[in-house]
């Protein structure tokens, strides 16, 4: 997929749920699965599948990165502490969660502006349509595939295997 000029996945940064800034340079050379998440969504049980992917493939390099978002049906109303507690208590999430962000519209996080530009959805639409949209990034920082919210994490195992 074509990249905007002078931009790569490694030029972005975000803050973790605890407020720690993280440069995506940290993930250079590692495949990434980037997902916008929500705690009160019909797709919320996908946290379990994302955690399973993390447990199964982290040692081989995969990084699962979750970005809570409250833009779809206000399904992520909590603050950082509430989000972290919910994910830990209900799904044992140990992959990296970032602070709540916008993934569409004028206030969208720059990472999501980039992801939607290089990997548009159905019919070429760049916007995120709902929670649990997933982006798979290869070891070189290229976005190789975008998955709809209905795509369960276990359904992308073969694609992940090809990147490891």
Tally of strands: 7
Given as residue ranges, the uncertain stretches (5+ residues, pLDDT < 50) are none
Give the CA-based shape: globular
Q: What is the architecture at the second tier of CATH?
A: 3-Layer(aba) Sandwich
Straight-line N-to-C gap: 19 Å
Instruction: Let me know the average pLDDT.
Output: 91
Q: Radius of gyration, rounded?
A: 14 Å
Adjacency order of strands in the biggest sheet: 5-4-3-6-7
Protein name: Glutathione peroxidase
Domain Thioredoxin: 3-164
Organism: Paraburkholderia humisilvae
GO molecular function, one term: peroxidase activity
Layout of SSEs?
Blueprint: E1 13-15, E2 21-23, E3 32-37, H1 46-57, E4 63-68, H2 80-91, E5 96-97, H3 110-118, E6 134-137, E7 143-147, H4 157-163
Parallel strand pairs: 3-4, 4-5
Antiparallel strand pairs: 1-2, 3-6, 6-7
InterPro entries: Glutathione_peroxidase, GPX_AS, GPX_CS, Thioredoxin-like_sf, Thioredoxin_domain
Family: Belongs to the glutathione peroxidase family.
GO biological process, one term: cellular response to oxidative stress
Q: Your description of this structure?
A:
The chain has 164 residues and is of the alpha/beta class. It has a single domain, classed as Glutaredoxin (3-Layer(aba) Sandwich), CATH 3.40.30.10. The protein has helices at 46-57, 80-91, 110-118, 157-163, and strands at residues 13-15, 21-23, 32-37, 63-68, 96-97, 134-137, 143-147. The strands form two sheets. A five-stranded mixed beta sheet has the order 5-4-3-6-7, with helices on one face. It has a two-stranded antiparallel ribbon with strand order 1-2. A hairpin with a 5-residue loop joins strand 1 (13-15) and strand 2. The longest helix has 12 residues, at 46-57. The radius of gyration is 14 Å and the shape is globular. The mean pLDDT is 91.
């Amino acid at each position: 997929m074509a990249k905007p000029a002078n931009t790569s996945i490694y030029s972005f940064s975000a803050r973790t749920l605890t407020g720690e800034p993280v440069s995506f340079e940290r993930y250079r050379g590692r495949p990434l699965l980037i997902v916008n998440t929500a705690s009160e969504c019909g797709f919320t049980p996908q946290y379990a599948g994302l955690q399973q992917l993390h447990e199964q493939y982290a040692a081989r390099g995969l990084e699962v990165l979750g970005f809570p978002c409250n833009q779809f049906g206000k399904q992520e109303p909590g603050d950082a502490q509430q989000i972290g507690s919910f994910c830990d208590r209900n799904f044992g999430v140990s992959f990296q969660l970032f602070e709540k962000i916008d993934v569409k519209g004028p206030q969208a996080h720059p990472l999501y502006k980039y992801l939607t530009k290089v990997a548009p959805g159905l019919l070429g639409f760049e916007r995120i349509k709902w929670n649990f949209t997933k982006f798979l990034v290869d070891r070189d920082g290229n976005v190789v595939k975008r998955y709809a919210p209905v795509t369960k994490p276990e359904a992308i195992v073969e694609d992940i295997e090809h990147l490891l």
